[in-house]
Amino acid sequence: MAEICDVAIVGGGAAGLSAAILLGRSRRHVVLFDTGTPRNQASRAVHGLLGHEGLAPSELLATARIELERYETVTLRSDLVTAITRSGSGFSVTCEGGSTFRARKVLLTTGLIDDVPKLEGIEQLYGRSVHHCPYCDGFEHRDQPLAVYGSGDKGAGLALMMKQWSPDVVLFTDAQATVSAEMAERLKQKSIEICSERIASLEGTEDGVLKSIRLKNGRAIERSAMFFSTGSRQRSNLSESLGCARDDDGGVITDPVTEESSVPGVYVAGDASRDVLLVAVAIGEGAKAAVAINRALLRGAGLG
Ligand SMILES: Cc1cc2nc3c(=O)[nH]c(=O)nc-3n(C[C@H](O)[C@H](O)[C@H](O)COP(=O)(O)OP(=O)(O)OC[C@H]3O[C@@H](n4cnc5c(N)ncnc54)[C@H](O)[C@@H]3O)c2cc1C
Fold first, then answer.
1. Is the CB–ligand 1 distance for residue 61 below 6 Å?
2. In this prediction, what percent of the chain has a pLDDT beyond 90?
3. How far is the CA of 164 from the centre of ligand 1 (A)?
4. Hey, which end of the chain has fewer CB within 10 Å, N or C?
């Protein structure tokens, strides 16, 4: 039978690494599993993170991994966790390939996947001039001609919001669900044009700068950046298979103080709990979960 570790962390993005550092500092035995696909891997620069403005996301995570090296009780494994089940008072964690680990507590920091619009040419632009989050990337495109991609009133809502960053916003619905009459009136009042033609492709430079949006009817509309609102979903179904309750948006419901889910002993932090979806918040939630887990382990040992 494998030795039992204190905490199994699944996910080595900002949330998981933040938790691992605090648990390492608390001398907890931790195994952190990660497949190396953080949500912002298409991005060139992290914005809005205190003290790290413009740092490459890969560099941020690489630095955290180096910082973790001094905590000898923390082990990093490049492995996909395929199943987690209850085992006595703890959990059994199974990886692809069959290796299993036992842990007293589980922390899921498995993140989300974005539904990037299926548009020709988007791949080389995504994360450079095509984005989903105005708080992350709006400032870099302030006062530029902006496109918003989205259907129905959700797309219209994002178009209205983008006026905070630029006076020149066009909403592209790509011939999908139409905007309600009420929203159409609000867009008109704010001088936001609605383009409901089908999009043929996004045209840009080789280094990822959007130049124009080519419509199926041949017309090209010049835009410098695009923001989209097509949604995101859980990267992993581990929280679902463990029975963790989710909210209407698919976020795992957690205690706001401890980050513990509805399943005792299973904690969820970072984007997977769908609070504010930012690196700073993921780091904060990872830290909160680490402190709560350490406290729970202290109580279990009669020390808390
Ligand atoms: C293009 C883009 C740009 C962004 N820019 C910014 C920005 O400028 N500023 C900002 O604050 N936020 C930004 N964000 C949001 C930011 O990426 C997220 O808030 C942050 O990555 C969340 O961290 P996390 O640790 O919760 O999840 P993630 O970073 O997604 O990490 C989850 C990790 O879990 C691993 N994993 C998942 N399932 C398993 C499994 N079963 N077994 C093993 N490993 C697993 C994945 O491989 C991944 O490494 C951006 C997002 C995108 C998409």
1. no
2. 94
3. 26
4. N
